[in-house]
Structure formats: C-alpha cells, structure tokens
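Researcher: Here's the sequence for the chain we discussed earlier.
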Amino acid sequence: MIRVVLVDDQTLVRSGIRGLLELTPDIRVVAEAADGASAPAVIAANAPDVLLLDVRMPQVSGIELLRRSGAALPPTILLTTFDDDEALFDGMRAGARGFLLKDISLERLAEGIRSVAAGATLFRPALTERTRGNFERSSVAGAAVQGSHTPLTGRETEILALMAAGLNNGEIAAALGPSEGTIKNHVSSILAKLGVRDRVRAVLRGLELGCI
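Model: Thanks. This is the structure I predict for it:
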C-alpha cells in the first residue's frame, strides 16, 4: 500500500483527491494538512511514501516548505494549475519530484503517485510550450544559455524526453531497445553535458535550454 499525505488549503480539493484515491486498491491518503505550517508534524507522524503538496497556501506555501524541509520530506508531487508556472519550477528546483494538475483524472493521479513512489520523476506533457516559454523568460541566463553546454546527441535528447516523462532506465531501455546499461551510460553523459548531478536537474536544464 502506498501511503500518501495530502497538503492543500482547499477542503474541497482534499476531499476530492481523497475520494478518488479511495477507489484505488493500492493507494491511501493516511493524513491531511491544511497549510505548510502544520504539514511537517503531520508528515512526521504518518511517514508517508509520497507527499502531495499544494503550491500556493497561506502562511507557509508548498514552495517554502520544500525549501525549508526538502531533504526531510518524502518524494513530493506538487499540486498546481496552469497559472503556477513560475512557482512550479521554483518547487522543482527546491526538490519536488514532479507535479500534477488539480483537475487530473483518477488514472493519471494514481499513475503519477505510483511512479514517484517507485523513484521516478514526473514531468509529463502538461509542461506545455507556454510553460517552457515562461520559464525561459524568467531565466537569468536568458537566450545566452542556449549555447552554454555541449550539445546532446539525437539519442540523448530522446532519452532526456523520456526522463521528463518519468521513465526509469529500465523503462527507457524497453521503449528504445538498447540494454539498461547502455541507457545508464547515456544518462551519465546527459548529466555531464548539462552540468547537473541528478535526473530532476537534468530535466529542468533541458527545459531551460529548449532541448525538450
């Protein structure tokens, strides 16, 4: 059973998500918090496998909670809307494993929670061109960043896109054909070329550079 703690200041959102997840055989909301200030105690008391965290809340926002306690939090999925583009990327930089939209279907919600619980990242197609554009405009480096890294090969770009979709090395290997070891080598090369140390930062950097 995947244990989930849900943090959102909107009662209807919390009850809606809890109700959806009660329809799944393997996921349960074990506790809720209505704001980021009370969330750490709730999380510590319930030891969840996954944290569903609203981006914008009074007192302590989801972003601020990640910044303060990221290393102590379980794998975290941000709950957001399309209006939260900038905050979304701030949250990912702070350590979120991905995000889901609040109007999501049960199937997508459950799939996302299972993926993150299994160690994957969750940057699915809701990262639209509009979202990418907003992020690029907010980047300090701006357009100059486009030429600041060693170009990825076509296969590396393909693998990076699958990483952004939340696939692990085994799943990427199954999708593309090479061995898992070959995919692992490609991922190491991607990290080195983009100058990052993990898959989440690789996806963020790839979005910043327009690689995916």
